[in-house]
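Suppose a colleague, Dr. K., hands you the sequence of a protein chain of 56 amino acids and asks what its three-dimensional shape might be. Before reaching for any lab equipment, you can write down a predicted structure in token form. Begin with the sequence itself:
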Amino acid sequence: MNIAVAGTGYLDLSIATVLAQHNHVIAVVPERVDLINQKNRPLRMSTLRSIRQRRN
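The predicted structure, expressed as tokens, is then:
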């Protein structure tokens, strides 16, 4: 399934991470893309790690 997420705040990106485990998810916000292109993280990795661990 293709899913578009409007916004990449803490809640939106957390939901997108969970949905992406079994779906194709696209979430784009220009400010976040700029951060990523500058090799900065828009979220702490520990946040994403804890979400993935709860899922498994």
